[in-house]
Amino acid sequence: MNGRAAFVALTLFAACDDxxxxxxxxxxxxxxxxxxxxxxLAADPGVPAGELRGVVRFVGEPPARRPLAVSGASGCGxxxxxSDTLIVTDGGVANVLVHARSGLAADAIAPPxxxxxxxxxxxxxxxxxxxxxxxxxxxEIRSADGVTHNVNxxxxxxxxxxxxxxxASPPIEARFERGELSIPLxxxxxxxMSAQVHVFEHQAFALSAVDGSFAIxxxxxxxxxxxxxxxxxxxxxxxxxxxxxxxxxxxxEFRRAQAEAR
Length: 262
What we know:
By secondary structure, the protein is mostly beta strands. The chain folds into two domains: 1-66 and 80-109 and 204-262, Immunoglobulin-like (Sandwich); 111-201, Cupredoxins -  blue copper proteins (Immunoglobulin-like, Sandwich), CATH 2.60.40.420. The protein is 2% helix and 42% strand. The protein has one helix and 19 strands. The strands form five sheets. It has a five-stranded mixed sheet with strand order 8-14-13-10-11, with no helix packed on it. The chain is globular and about 60 Å long. Residues 1-29 have low confidence and may be disordered.
């Protein structure tokens, strides 16, 4: 995430002249030095009140996904999988985490879901590559592979674990009790395997889908500061004022920095 300040412009859509937005100071918008970013934000009567709805796009030609260095003696069959670090499909950027850094009152925080979140291992790759859940929510780590894995989790604020998982093993059940971003998961047997786990002590977060879309719902009226975070592209922040009339729409665009594009 080391890099220069990203360029962030918060621009109103023409149909929403009464929307309130603020320009984020450059010091609050950090991105990977190889990329630049722009944020366009507006109140949108088509978005339900209490919702932040958006899309993350990559403008121009994204970096190519490269085959992972899979060992031939690993027992993992098939062609070498492609890197999951940056996935761009028809311009949409997947796995961008958008979350509220401030603005959600303590009495508006919901308890963690009683349903579990599933992280699978398929063809010696974690699927999906990035997951996000609330503190205390169950993470169920499964394996569809016919080889043994070990799931090595190295959080800084939560309890670490390193558990073996044979083809006949039941799912590993893990709970992270404290909020923490970018917890790395790996497999020492298959060192190309990696995943990231984001844990929050509130429910105001979302991961962008394959098409780059995301939505955060159930936000009470108020002033919020959001962060968009991606392991390859970096991070940026923006602010929005939500009221009881309508939600807000945001468009986040990344592109190669001019120095990199030449």
